[in-house]
Amino acid sequence: MTEIPEFLNALMIARSPSGYEFETQKIVDRYLEHAVDEYKKDSIGNRFATVKISDAHPTLMLSGHMDELGFAITYIDDKGFLSFDTIGGHDRSIIPGRRVRILTQNGDVLGVTGKRAIHLLDDEERNEVPKVHKLWIDIGAKSQEEAKKWVRIGDPVVYETPETTVMNNTHNITGRAFDDKAGTYAVMEVALRLAKEKEKLNCNVTAVASTQEEVGCRGAINATYTCAPTVGIAVDVGHATDFPDCDHKRFAKIELGAGPIIARGANINPHIFERIVACAEQENIPYQIEAETHPTGTDARYIQITRGGVPTGLISIPLRYMHTPVETANLEDIENVVRLICAFALSLKVEDRFEF
Question: Per-residue confidence at 136, pLDDT binned at 50, 70, 90?
Fold first, then answer.
């Protein structure tokens, strides 16, 4: 039977909407703090796990963001119903009718997202995607006073979802927030593995669990200033487009289980791209190439342009149903991303600069 790695599963269980990454930070702390040469935190919540050779060696920075989508409470009405707004980019059509957990200073509060029942909508309203301000969260309170005993304005909210699950004895797994707990796992697992073969490295490796990517890649900006890396690799998720109604002429062809996605385009240093491909072929790792014609919606876009500029690559984990409570990934893809980054790190030489 396929098993989910313990570290990955722990990350998936943790709740971490952008700006409220506390639970995931604790998981990263537990697994990495005493396993690497240097470990530190910063004021925006990033975590830095470094396998250190010396200050004279170049530094490879790896970034996988640990925040996820969520909501925040914005108003409590006189009957105890809660208004909310989104954290990150949601598909509004799937928000109603969900169980949610409000993460308060006194523990979780269970709620449900409500809207008018379909029987109470006119024909025009039935065809509309509900606007967020027309939805609410019901926590069973009878009044504003009662609700305020349980929750505060600004409390973060996440979907309540079943545990991460292997799908029918395949390598596919489904759960909440593979975007980007899978990337966090990948970069931190690379640090754990490289710490055990440090003598083979010609560079320092700093794995960053970055914060606030879903609201503008904010953690990556601070992290890149701090690391001042010679080379940067972002690890995120990418759209698997192997679902029934996909037009591959519009969205390319990316398959779940077919290997890491290696980005190529203006946001990507061309020499880094070629080196990643060479490492994949040398290690017999299956891979897919995705053309990125704009700055990517990942940490890579800011790693590339921070300080004097950083030669940057992007490796993505294929994912179906992104930004939903049932994101679906493939364990072999995740493992192959880890293997590929390890091979890339071990390929780096002191003289590599990737200028063009």
Answer: very high
pLDDT tens column, 195-247: 999 999 999 999 999 999 999 999 999 999 999 999 999 999 999 999 999 88
For position 218, what pLDDT does the model report?
95
Report d(CA 209, CA 191) in Å as an integer: 11
Instruction: Decide if 20 contacts 102 (C-beta within 8 A).
Output: no
Q: In degrees, to the nearest 5, what angle opens at C-alpha 215 toward C-alphas 223 and 309? A: 40
Q: Which amino acid is at 331?
A: L
Longest dimension (CA), the chain: 69
Burial class of residue 220 in the structure, from the number of CB atoms within 10 Å of its CB (0-12 exposed, 13-18 middle, 19+ buried): buried
Global pTM?
A: 0.96
- Where, residue-wise, is CATH 2.40.30.40 in the chain? 70-159
Catalytic residue list contains 33: no
Mean of per-residue pLDDT scores for the chain: 96
- Tell me which H or E stretch contains 150: helix 144-150
Q: Domain 6-68+176-347, CATH 1.20.120.1200 — does that match?
A: no
The CATH code of the domain at 70-159 is 2.40.30.40
The Cα–Cα gap between 233 and 207 comes to: 10
Choosing from 213, 214, 292, 327, the catalytic residue is 213
pLDDT band at 1 (very low <50, low <70, confident <90, very high): low
Given the DSSP bridges, would you call strands 59-65 and 47-51 parallel, antiparallel or unpaired?
unpaired
- In the chain, CATH 3.40.630.10 covers 6-68+176-347
